[in-house]
Amino acid sequence: MNKEIKIGTRESQLALWQANKVKGLLDAQGYNTTLVPIKSEGDIDLVTPLYEIGVQGIFTKSLDIALLNGRIDIAVHSLKDVPTQLPKNIIQVAVLERGPVKDLLVYRQDTAFLDQPAYIANIATSSVRRKAQWLRKYPKHQLHNLRGNVNTRLQKLAAENWDGAIFAAAGLERINVRPSTSIELDWMLPAPAQGAVVAVCREDDDFCRQACAPFNDLATALCTRVERDFLRTLMGGCTTPISAYATISNDTIHFSGELCSIDGQQLFTIAEQAPLADAGLIGKIAAEKILAQGGDKIVAEIRNAIK
């Protein structure tokens, strides 16, 4: 185990937390590891909305290149940021046990505005999914683009005259920056694979594959695969208003999925369950049902809007 495993990561505090989590798991097995921070395209341009950038894997591309070039041996990502089709010669080797999956509203003063139908609140988020879900529930509210790492977004919220901003609970809680002025959005279905961390390596790297295998959480890996199958079958891409969440109980997988129009006016929902032995196609089947019910028209509209 004297061979050094170079772990690639983005430079944000959250990304480093995730990479250090993987590093700790490898170190505990006796492996020699080091972190290699790499800046991603998504961290450089903090102004353009993600859907306008139009790059699949904007937060993972730089790490993929470093991995294929041999600069790093393992890349660690938030799984929700990873394209549903991995680059050639890169494979998923471990999905860590899932963390919090819900979204949070961090508010400036209070949440009274949520119960005031006539009030036009100003809410910030960079997520197309969150914007669509929010507009469906609060169609009069104004949505504002908010880019940057977790700390940068919290600072922007404090500086702007907004009523609140939407964050993933996992991102705030993992680095202990969740404000007391936050509430969980129970009604908001999360992004596919939200709250999960993944390690990937080169397909021909048996050493790293074997090193990561012990901390691959089978339940999380299955649930996130079902969610990402749903996403891939509909249209793929993290800059789309698609939500999915799968859980396992009593040897049964339970799945919920949503496809929303960008303006929040149209919504397709589906709930499926299946025995674990038959769970492999549940995400794909759920997506195909939504498409057959008219979801294909929303998908076509979304494709035109984000070209």
UniProtKB/TrEMBL annotation:
Bilayer-crossing regions: none
Keyword line: Porphyrin biosynthesis, Transferase
Family: Belongs to the HMBS family.
Residues annotated as domain Porphobilinogen deaminase C-terminal: 222-291
Protein name: Hydroxymethylbilane synthase
GO biological process, one term: heme biosynthetic process
CC terms in the record's Gene Ontology section: cytoplasm
Reactions the enzyme catalyzes: 4 porphobilinogen + H2O = hydroxymethylbilane + 4 NH4(+)
Pfam families: Porphobil_deam, Porphobil_deamC
Record bears the keyword Zinc-finger: no
EC code(s) of this entry: 2.5.1.61
Names of required cofactors: dipyrromethane
Function: Tetrapolymerization of the monopyrrole PBG into the hydroxymethylbilane pre-uroporphyrinogen in several discrete steps.
UniProt gene name: hemC
Single GO term (MF): hydroxymethylbilane synthase activity
InterPro entries: HemC (IPR000860), Porphobilin_deaminase_cofac_BS (IPR022419), Porphobilin_deaminase_N (IPR022417), Porphobilinogen_deaminase_C (IPR022418), Porphobilinogen_deaminase_C_sf (IPR036803)
Pathway(s) served: Porphyrin-containing compound metabolism; protoporphyrin-IX biosynthesis; coproporphyrinogen-III from 5-aminolevulinate: step 2/4
Summary of subunit composition and partner proteins: Monomer.
Every Porphobilinogen deaminase N-terminal domain range: 5-207
